Amino acid sequence: MDAEVDLISIPPDEELYKKQYYSISIVAKWFRVNNSLLRFWENEFKILKPKKNKKGDRFFRPEDVKNLQIIYYLLRQKKLTISGAIKHLKAHKENTEVNLQIIHSLNNFKSFLLELKTNTEK
After folding, report:
1. Taking the model in full, what pTM does it have?
2. Which one is the CATH code of 2-121: 3.60.130.10, 1.10.1660.10, 1.10.1740.10, 3.40.50.300?
3. Gene3D superfamilies given for it (predicted)?
């Protein structure tokens, strides 16, 4: 599970909220998934509402990226099915957001401690 957490590379909130929209290709790179998977998740999960231009290109708001983090967590880390993740979001969205924030904080703290350990061993 720790290995999968490290796979996604979403910028910190301060940086994420500097822009209003991100293209689907950038967001897909952050999550290391195909654009088609993001489009599929958009159709399945009502909380994803990327803006589309006249051409049909999708642009994700920072809120959409945060919702994608929750979806990724439920599907890839908790190994829920799509229908299970949808039910979970309906019943426990706020708790899941809090849990995800705690997991990220703990992972950041773990990285800090590992870096500290590496620096003190030199």
Report:
1. 0.78
2. 1.10.1660.10
3. 1.10.1660.10
